[in-house]
């Protein structure tokens, strides 16, 4: 890993944590959790994927439980959602349907951003720790998807990643690009950013055009 | 860590495990689980927080999967709930509402006891293993809250800790007291017990006066 | 551990992974997940228990996230369920009740097979890594039961293992046989296969005769 990439890794990591924590906070507010619950969901969504990543790689204690920059980012994110959402409700309490639709759309965009940076950063950290190539790809996907899955399971929902539009596939592609580039000695800043952009573009295209992975029952219902 | 504190740590740990396992067993009985399910929920609630703690700190295998004192405590606790609850139902089957209310109250007190000792013991173990100060505080909270969260998620409920009265905040305060005292070279038996008492008092005050952390939707509904 | 047993361990492991992944894929199809979701549930059910095992034993990264043989087995299993189930639905879409009953029965047999090999293989891996005897027994049970529990919790169901017929008890017996045989220096291929057969027989007997562990509420309702 070249030196400048480490700084990019930190910046990307903080960006992904921030936006994923926002999505976690929003889910927490919708589940009618209290301030602490919203903060926990922000933490789980923002840092849960990275904590699973570090535990799987044996990098304990995970940065997600002690790095002040990460914890501070999550805390600010959770408080923003809590404060912003409260005011938002006051302003628009007469149009609850519109409000919920907008929140739902925000969650999708934030998820796409978090997904992109986490897949790339997760794979990069696994490469740094010398894990096998296949492990690096899977760790990238798990980093990207794990926080959101924990977030949904905690509030009793089947994880969105398992049933909605193409979600983990772009993460898989992005992590693979990073790992292949590393093995080919071609990993640099441009590749990193390109991989992030690639994941985001695929994911948002899936959201925009409502592209879904095939489901078995859909096939059956057509028959 | 001074030597006598190690014994206190064991005693506190066993006490916390016992009462948390009782709460887990009660939740298991209410979820109509069989004897094995009740034992598993007792184990998850009693030792789950400590197992997460040890995994996060890299202290594997976690004591929660092999220490006979811990496993024996959980087993006795689960069997007590199973046997006691069965007789209790026979005696009072004509007044199911009263019975469930009493169980609910018991769970709250047991939870408060477990919460207090786990927050303090969790932080102490992290200090022993030389983790960063912030990690020690978070590990204390996770130890205190993790078992109960796993217990609730397994039976399909949104974790009580995320939506009810002030729950994790006292754990956060207690763990912080222990870590600050350690950094100031002031950690001794009195501080340990005072921290446990502090957490328990705050928590029971919250239960008694139904103190809640603020929720975002409540604010909105008032507007 | 004698050398030939290592190969048996691999064969058993792959067999258990395959059948457990089938059960995970079937649950995923029933929960109306998309292709990726079905693959994830196959992976969680097939390799989740082993991943928990490796994390608890500090054997990171877990083989379940990088071994191509394991990942390939899960992938093939998930795709088979997806393809087979789709065709199955087409053929029998007029008799949905029969179809679901058959799937349910298949899941039970597959679960029993996976349970048997995972309990034995899990305990053997813990023995290989020099864990305490009690840890080896529990790790065997956790390996056998963990994937199925994760599978059920992810789709929002109370884990089947906690409420249905005798499930974990045979795993406990099988893991204990392996650990005791190892401590008595009697562990060989015959013992390994006998332990697998023992677990499978007990489990299928429980399924066939609908044997249940006692439940506390049942006792109460009889009174």
Describe the structure in your own words:
The structure is a homotrimer of 223-residue chains. The relative contact order of chain A is 0.14. In chain A, helix 4 (96-128) runs antiparallel to helix 5 and helix 6 runs antiparallel to helix 7. Chain A is globular, with a radius of gyration of 18 Å. The first copy, chain A, has helices at 3-30, 35-57, 68-92, 96-128, 133-154, 168-183, 189-208, 216-222. The N and C termini of chain A lie far apart (52 Å). Residues 88-98 and 218-223 of chain A have low confidence and may be disordered. Chain A is mainly alpha-helical. Chain A binds chain B through residues 28-29, 31-38, 40-41, 51, 55, 58, 60-62, 65-68, 71, 81-82, 85-86, 89-90, 93, 153-156, and chain B through 55-58, 131-132, 134-135, 138-139, 142, 149, 153, 156-159, 161-164, 166-169, 212-217, 219-221, 223.
């Amino acid at each position: 890993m070249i030196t400048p990439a480490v700084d990019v890794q930190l910046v990307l990591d903080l960006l992904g944590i921030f936006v994923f924590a926002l999505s976690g906070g929003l889910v927490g507010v919708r589940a009618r959790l209290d301030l602490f619950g919203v903060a926990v969901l922000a933490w789980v969504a923002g840092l849960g994927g990275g904590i699973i990543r570090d535990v799987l790689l044996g990098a304990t204690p995970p940065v997600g439980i002690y790095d002040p920059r990460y914890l501070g980012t999550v805390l600010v994110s959770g408080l923003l959602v809590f404060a912003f959402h409260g005011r938002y409700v006051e302003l628009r309490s007469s149009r609850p349907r519109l409000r919920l639709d907008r929140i739902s759309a925000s969650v999708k965009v934030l998820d796409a951003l978090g997904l992109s940076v986490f897949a790339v950063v997760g794979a990069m950290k696994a490469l740094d720790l010398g894990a096998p190539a296949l492990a690096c790809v899977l760790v990238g996907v798990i980093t990207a998807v794990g926080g959101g899955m924990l977030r949904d399971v905690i509030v009793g929902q089947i994880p969105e990643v398992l049933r909605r539009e193409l979600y983990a596939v772009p993460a898989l592609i992005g992590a693979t690009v990073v790992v292949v580039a590393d093995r080919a000695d071609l990993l640099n800043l441009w590749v990193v950013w390109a991989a992030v952009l690639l994941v985001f573009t695929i994911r948002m295209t899936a959201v925009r055009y409502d592209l879904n992975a095939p489901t078995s029952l859909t096939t059956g219902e057509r028959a």
